[in-house]
Amino acid sequence: xxTMLQWAFGLMLGGxxxxxxDRVIFHWVTDFIDVKFFxxxxxxxxxxxVIGVCLFALDSILEWKRERRAA
Length: 71
What we know:
This protein is mainly alpha-helical. 72% of the residues lie in helices and 6% in strands. The protein has one domain (3-70).
């Protein structure tokens, strides 16, 4: 089942394209989400990228564990 991997790549691609479109059209990326307990300011595309990378890492770890169990 590759659903998690598909979500991961979709989020990473969407985040990258979102930031790229902002950069090409406006010549900058607007960061507008300011969480008081988390110092960096970010945008939705950044969030999609981070969540996608985390899902990819989780999928890789789970796949590694499945392969170890099967061996």
